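Hi support team,

I submitted a single chain yesterday and got back a structure, but I'm not sure I'm reading the token output correctly. Could someone confirm the output below corresponds to the sequence I sent? I've pasted both exactly as they appear in my results page.

Thanks,
R.
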Amino acid sequence: MTYIVVVVAYVLMLLGISVYKSRTVKSDEDFMVAGRNVPVYMLVATLVCTWIGSGSLFGTAGLTFRTGVSELWFSAGAWFGILVIYMIAARVRRIAQYTLTDLLEKRYSQLAKVLGTITIIIAYMVIAGYQFKGGGRFIAILSDGSITPETGMIIAAFLIVGFTVLAGMVSIVSIDIFNGVIMLIAMVVTLPFAIAGHGGLDAVIATIQQAQPSHLSVMGGHDFFWVVGIALPTFLLLMSESSMYQKFSSADSEDNAKKAVMGMFIGVVVVETLMMLIALVGFAIYADDPRFFMADGTVNRAMAEEIILRIGFEQLPVIIGSLLLAAGAAIVISTGNTFLMVTSTNVTRDIFQAFFYKNATSSQVVWIQRACIVGIGLLAYLMMSQFETILEMALMSYTMIGASLAPPLLAAFFWKRVTRLGGVASIASGMLTVIAIATLNSIYKGSAEGLQIVGISFPMDTDYIAIPAVIVSVTTLVVVSLLTAKPEPEDWQEFIEA
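Hi R., thanks for writing in. Yes, this is the structure output for that exact sequence:
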């Protein structure tokens, strides 16, 4: 009962902040980019909370349970991505568009913007959907099974959509200060208590060495291609993560946008490393628990994704466990808010304002976006049935965004020779490649024979889907750009500093 009281009290506090902040929303700029007046400490917190979502709480945890320390390759992809983003954050704030697709339109064309919008809508609905899925599992654990995961998903979806509708970006950056703090404190405190609960560090290491020695090695028994396949999605998503660019545009200055990225780097590295270590200790704790393994001895991937929350609910003192579970609620809500916000901003600006309501007033735009948030939330909920695990959903959506948008976006900032047609072709080819892989995986899922295309077997392991998608997108970008006329200097001058 204590767990429920603490989590509900925390969620109600966040709701109160959102209701209060909703009174400050006076224009579409307030709703979309918080009036471009967010100080650096708030920007750091909201950037960290954007990245640490259900994909980390469940996906990272499940991958750690399955592969051990080598999970850090998955996380490290994002870390390298943040360092690259650091180089362009100030330029993004100076250009000061609302969304990533605005940048694509400015550098390439309206068609690039439309294709980018379609990509973001599809992928971000999947990401928002697995926040609902993660929230459903969270509520089922919190209620000790009295609420089913399916019912929990409905509750989670309702809460996340409600938070986002209230005050948009103003609400998100306001509550993420609290979410970021509780997230960090909970992880720092949980790790030593979890280790002590299993008899100390030596006991944890001994159990892992006996059960699965490869869990303590950097490669985890995998080869180089697995490392590339698992790191690429997070690296590329970070490069083309639309919410990051939207939040850079919320910064109160170019300099603070850049400082916030370095703060984000430190925060994400610390939190994700702690999550990996907690999940690794969880493997030792539950190494003999049949709930976490299939009949043939392989890991039950869906159950393994719950390892961090299971530790909080089943292994820790009540006060520490309550703190961890409150952090779990913060993680699900903050990331769900952000991805609904970004997707609805793209739909509102790139579709409704561009084609249907060109003369809408500022207040009308806000209400259009609120309606979009509700509609997108419903579609995201309906899409969840297509995937079994949160990690599978994360890898597919990360690759959709990364392979389609990262190559043309990076080229816009670093390659003068990229052409309008090259950028458009790259977006289209990356998106279609991921859709084709997802379709073939769905068709041949469970098939005894499968399918072979140019040496690639379907269904394809989601750990590797980023590799062919990126190869197609980058090749198309380079080849089409070199075959078309050089862009004029005015096309790239604003993006590329001397």
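A quick pointer for reading it: The longest helix spans residues 149-197. Let us know if anything else looks off.

Best,
Support desk
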